Fold these 2 entries.
Entry 1:
Amino acid sequence: MVPSGRLIWLVALGGFPAVVLEAVVPQVRVAAVALIIVIVIAALVDGMLRKRALAGLKVELPELLRLVQGRQACIPVTIHNDASPGRHIRIGFAMPPGVEAEPDEQWVDLPAGISRIEWLCQPRLRGTYTIGECYLEVASPLGLWLVRGAQTASLEIRVYPNLRDDGALLALRRGSESLHLTRQIGRGREFEKLREYSPGDSSDEIHWKATARRGRPITKVFQVERTQEIYIVIDASRLSVRSIGGEAALERSIKAALTVGAVTERRGDLFGIAAFSDRVETFVRARGGKLHYSACREAINSLRSRPVSPDFEEITTFLRLHLRRRALVIFLTALDEPVLAEHFERSARLLARRHLVMAATLRPASAQPLFHDATIESTEDIYRALAGHLAWSKLREMQSALARHGVRVALFEPESFSANLVNLYDDVKQRQLI
């Protein structure tokens, strides 16, 4: 409870002059004292009636709100006023750090009954947040005090990555368009149907039992295999917090993973996801359907970088134990540190004995060929360019070393990470490498 403007003006225009007159003019002492007593009694009585100010007010929020990062949204607020109409209240929420309210507080004139307002907000950071309390401020019955109180709320806000960024939307559109346009190499491996023999059909495509039953040559028709398992493995260790191209590497990896998941769902393949640091953070077995895609999105939506080194041995052992059939496993990790690259190489060779293993890494801004950038103006620029060339050369050597063991490492630009990852998946499907 805090003094209102009405009480301050009442004391300033009535109480203070009465005190001065009581001390200076003895003739009006009785009247001045009476006025002071009236003001004090009114303030005390109004303060004792403060509980009536918040009586009959109830604020309701939805249980769950799903928002998209960087896209303005509204929080629906329902206010029940079971007391007198015409109440003027101030309402505000303790917004979580990843969501900004616009504005922070609002003044609302409430009629009797139910009122609904839309509270603008701007989700800034991906993750899951909660709003647990709503704060109210209402004038007391005589308006001399402002009564403040809090009500319990239970709103869960889930902020998902914006797939319109990082070229993800373009990758999704291209993935849908190429569903029927991509030319497959080879005849396919999955049996589709039987048909009459046509000149030019290979002898190994003839179904001999059907030929014997029907008395004429019958050929087997194959199609490209569907429902193959695709796993995206996200590195959430210390290097994932680095900003590459103006955004953290982990955020780009999550967007790229969800983009590939959406494309595989449209292609009819099974999509699974895993995340690790020095331990396995989350794992969702490959399945199909939109509900499963939502489950994968929920599993990594609260993923945060941890200041630890990645344990490639732990995640590869886990995958070897839990993946029952041959799958495409794509690691989204950073391999520009020689020690980490060596650990990944040793672990990936074991996993590649049964699965098709690939790694996609974001190219650091400094890792580039020596003469890629000709703007050399000082000695420091020369040394910086030499350091970048050495880092780029180490990455190329690692690519060659892993390629000899059947592990492909792709170095992508940050701006087109999602699109290039979809291209990598398309290349595997086209060549039927799984």
Entry 2:
Amino acid sequence: MKDKVIGLAHGSGGRKTARLIRELFLAYLGNPILERLEDAAEFPSDRGRIALTTDSHVVYPLFFPGGNIGKLAVCGTLNDLAVKGARPRFMTAGFVLRAGMSMDVLERIVRSMGEELNKAGVQLIAGDTKVIEKGKVDDCYITTTGFGALEHSKTFAPERIEEGDVILVSGNIGNHETAVLLARGDFGFEHKIESDIANVWPLVERLIEAGVDVKAMRDPTRGGLATTLNELASAAGLGMIIKEADVPFSLPVKGTAELLGLDPYYLASEGRLIAIVAKDHAERALEVLKAEPLGKNAKAIGEVRDGPEGLWLETLLGSERPLLVLEGEQLPRIC
């Protein structure tokens, strides 16, 4: 390992995270399933195709406009299953709590988890709790594992992506990271930005039912739209270009990013879907997404091309600039 100590950037989803995974974890723990590095792992069983994912949630603050760590833990886990095409069925949760944490705060978090699980028709079937002495941790960290079933014969994977495929997003980008940033109160802004946290499985289910030829799906969490599309382009060995005029940002998100010197293409979302679809299915895919409340602002934002590799942005002036994977991150602990 080039780095001698762990820093916040190793958890960002950027270049340092990728190096940590490839040079340390895969070096000792690698196997054909893990080495695919997908949001959820698919593996066969006697009862059909199953998907499994695990995630840890360390967001600060615990509560922010539009959500809290409990809602985030559930939706984030369900979304990792959904973008693999798996219907979420079961979940487990482990809690690390600080001695002295308010019981009322913990109840609010657990209640929100129950509400999201009930809406999704998912059962929590196992859990664990550990308590750490004061001063050692924040109030609450949550680790989750999700189990899902692939109830169809479709495959969603980067190797299916081809030149000419269309890049779709299901709604405005970057609301989650912006909401968390402003909730920390470091800038004194008055704002009404809410996190976009949501379970995207209903969107995925509708696309599958409609027979849309979806090649691959991801949710743009850590590293935002730019990092997620870079990962897909790299895995496919192709280039991608998105148009500045077509990427949907709300005015408050874009304005906040400009004021703080942040690049909005790297702002995380927790309730948005990226879908790479065959060109002749793009119009139908948009119709399906827009018919759902969560997908009402869906847009086609670009396409896949043969080269150059990586992700490129077509600016409003018609020029192109690369959107690279960041070395670290713009804001730590957003999920």
